[in-house]
Amino acid sequence: MENNGIISSGSHAAPQEKKLFTPGPLCVSRTVKEALCRDMGSRDTEFIQIVKNLRDNLVKVAGLSQNEFTAVLMQGSGTFSVESVLLSTSNRKQKVLIVANGAYGQRMKIICEKAEIPYDILVFPETQVVDVERVLNFLESQPNGIFSSVAVIHCETTTGIINPTEKLGEQLKQKFPAMTYIVDAMSSFAAVEANYSQVDFLISSANKCLQGVPGFGFVICRLTQLEKCKGLSKSLALDLYEQWKGLEENGQFRFTPPTHAILGLTQACKELEAEGGVAGRARRYKKNSEIIKVGMAERGFKQLIEGEEGHITTTFFYPSHENFNFQKFYNELSDLGQLIYPGKVTNAACFRIGHIGHLDAEDMRHLLKCIDQVLSKMNIPCPLQ
Ligand SMILES: Cc1ncc(COP(=O)(O)O)c(C=O)c1O
């Protein structure tokens, strides 16, 4: 990667900048950061055109047709976009079926509870992909018309597991053609090659694998489904339909747009294209993840999920050595300019290393060297016993 101002690389730039081996926000390129160094009026014709181009580009990155789909940008973090979809698609007479195998599926449940959206949840173990047959069997066992939608996470960032959303979508649309299909692809969009043509509402955000900066999320919506959302949301700000209408009518956001973050994502999309699109980005992340998985295995670390994990983030068990203390391990790595991430699974002591963002093979190898240094400082023999 081009010099990004990291302490450990001895560069001349901002010394406090660290490498983020996290699930987000992520390291972004210097050119993305530079794109933010410009003030823009939210009602200026140039900005309106930038927003329009970005929306079109996001549909293109998803591999979908602009005749059938549109991208709606939503201020806030990714959760705001997820919440806007759940609020805007529920008619409150039928239920949404949440298919969960981790914290982000569970977050959908909390959103529904708070907003009093009728739902059911099918929970799968955090260490396994969701079972498509079980979802379909469950729906078949239920009275006709009780559910209006199914919502699932593509990459469950809790563990890094990648769910078979394509298979679920195909079978769902075959057996229940009236069902709305919602996919949270927050941490997989632009980094996992997928066919999203069965999805009605596809959610992600600027600061994940597109490598923009935080500030807004987006939803790629099937137009025929979006049109049915009029008047459904019980929130003013998180109303996907009204947000879309606003953007369509005069090209403007209803409320203050994240102008700088939009300039950042516009630049980030150019960089995605230059990298070879989703395929190119997936290639780099897979290489990053391979270096970490092999390197950590050589050091005796055990993965939470062997084999099935994707290339977004990997979860490792804490070493059993008595000197291991995660907070100390984390702080020591942080002092070396390397930020890893705590675990999020319910029943295991573990931590995560993200492979995404503006990071390359050299960054991953450097992290491994820093891990060696820290283990040695903590008096933990490496390889671990
Ligand atoms: C799959 C998934 N869904 C939702 C979210 C929530 O996004 P945010 O933290 O930006 O609100 C995340 C965040 O990492 C995520 O990975």
Can you offer a commentary on this structure?
It is a single chain. The chain has 385 residues and is α/β, with parallel strands linked by helices. The chain folds into two domains: 7-21 and 277-377, Aspartate Aminotransferase, domain 1; 30-273, Type I PLP-dependent aspartate aminotransferase-like (Major domain) (Aspartate Aminotransferase, domain 2). The chain contains twelve helices and 14 strands. The chain has helices at 30-35, 45-61, 78-89, 103-115, 132-141, 165-175, 223-226, 240-250, 259-274, 277-298, 326-335, 361-377, and strands at residues 19-20, 69-75, 95-100, 119-123, 147-153, 155-156, 161-162, 180-184, 201-205, 216-222, 313-317, 338-339, 341-342, 350-354. The strands form four sheets. The protein has a seven-stranded mixed β-sheet with strand order 2-10-9-8-5-3-4, sandwiched between helices. Strands 11-14-13 form a three-stranded antiparallel β-sheet, covered by helices on one side. Helix 2 (45-61) packs across helix 9 and helix 3 packs across helix 4. 46% of the residues are buried. The chain binds pyridoxal-5'-phosphate. Its cofactor is pyridoxal 5'-phosphate. It catalyses: (2-aminoethyl)phosphonate + pyruvate = phosphonoacetaldehyde + L-alanine; glyoxylate + L-alanine = glycine + pyruvate.
